[in-house]
Amino acid sequence: MNTKTIDFSKFSSIRIGPVVEVALIENDIVPKDHLIIGSANNVLISPTPPPLMILSKEYDYIRLDEDGLHIGAAIPGGRVVSFCKKNNIAHFEYLSKLPGTLGGMIKMNAGLKEFEIFNHLIAIRTISGWIPKEKIQYGYRKTSIDEVIFEAVFDAEAGYSVERYEMFAQMRSNQPHDPSAGSCFKNPPGDYAGRLIEAVGLKGEHIGAMAFSNVHANFLVNTGGGVYQDALTLIHLAQERVKAQFDIDLQCEIVLIDQKL
Question: Is residue 259 part of a domain?
Fold first, then answer.
């Protein structure tokens, strides 16, 4: 089994985590008892993570076939958008503003507003073979997928839209530029996590170098040299205050990775 040394304080989008030997997934062989971390864009990795694995470069591809658009799970969203623009393919413009690689986006049914990755998905390929969308349970930022995704195929409709691309860019223009793992919490039904965090007085709140951003309260940001425990303390503080004041259980959108969990 080949491995790769990753310094998660540089590799992860929130710039927190240890230096770890990570197993490479190659030739559709998935190491047992390992957790996949993708491009580490929506994760918070503790100093004591479980064994980790990552897709190798063989899963970084995109091609247009007769049955649809085939995309490897290791490809970043920006590359998908560039391909679709060049080939006049519709419905992928929003991926340019979503961090991460395709496998993680599918696993969490990523999206912006009503535009979600499952909208035009046909099937995914895992160690079990091809699985059609109809066999997968999915909803807002969640799916029933419990295997490593190698590849997916999507509808390939004509009509790339510059207007949609610019609309998505505007939707993300209010996000902070400090390192973060994206939205910290899922929006509860009928409300917004950012509004709730601000309402309980935590917008801009710091513990060490970690803070709920003054730009957007639902972004937990690293202002420089932040550590896992301070991030975790802020997450628990927000959950406790929102529960006490609004009787709402904030659910993490950030994935916490710790050997103890």
Answer: no
By annotation, the residues acting in catalysis are 141, 183, 253
pTM metric for this prediction: 0.87
Same domain, 29 and 70: no
The conformation of residue 55, written as its DSSP 8-state character, comes to E
- pLDDT for the residue 173: 66
What is the CATH classification number for the domain harbouring 98?
3.30.465.10
Instruction: Give the whole-angstrom CA distance, residue 54 versus residue 45.
Output: 14
Q: What are the Cα distances from residue 232, in Å, to 26, 236, 253, 256?
A: 33, 6, 13, 9
Does one domain contain both 66 and 157? yes
Is residue 182 a part of any domain in this protein?
yes
Instruction: Name the band, by pLDDT with cuts 50, 70 and 90, for residue 261.
Output: low
Q: Quick one: which of 155, 136, 154 has its CA closest to 146?
A: 136
CA separation for the pair 186, 161 (Å, rounded): 28
Residue 136 and residue 79 share a domain? yes
Cβ-based neighbour number of residue 199 at 10 Å: 16
84-to-114, 161, 230 alpha-carbon distances in Å: 20, 10, 40
Residues 152 and 182 in one domain: no
Range of the domain at 246: 177-254
pLDDT for the residue 119? 94
The helix/strand count (H/E) of the chain reads as 6, 19
Is residue 261 one of the residues assigned to a domain? no
50-76: per-residue pLDDT in tens? 999 999 999 999 999 999 999 999 999
Res 259: pLDDT: 86
Phi, psi (deg, nearest 5) at residue 44: -125, 110
